Amino acid sequence: MFKLIDSFSAAQKEQVQKLMEEWLKNEIDKLTFGQDHFARFLKSADFDWEKAASKFSDMLVWRKEAHVNGITDSEADLD
Fold it and tell me: Which tens digit of pLDDT belongs to each residue from 43-68?
């Protein structure tokens, strides 16, 4: 299966790693967001690290406001 990051240069892959290290502070986040997730944010920001980090931060705020993380918790209660 093709992964977006496979098409990145070494420098671009380093940027993905940097973004991941900045945002993945705990194990829960590591389960939710993978390398390809961060690769998409960087590619959409034309590999501007600060812009990608800002977009990622905005997405996290939206997830919190929309209670996205609670959806899977609610579904687990139904089992």
Answer: 999 999 889 889 988 988 898 898 88
d(C-alpha 52, C-alpha 44), whole Å: 8
Amino acid at 37: H
DSSP line for 1-50: ---GGGGS-HHHHHHHHHHHHHH--SHHHHHH--HHHHHHHHHHTTT-HH
Q: What is the dihedral of CA 25, 65, 58, 15, to 10 degrees?
A: 30
Reported as type and span, the H/E element at residue 79 is none
C-alpha to C-alpha distance for 42 and 4, rounded to whole angstroms: 11
Coil/strand/helix, residue 78: helix
- pTM of the predicted structure, to 2 decimals: 0.63
Distance in angstroms (rounded) separating the CA atoms of residues 43 and 6 = 12
| Percent above pLDDT 70 for the chain | 77
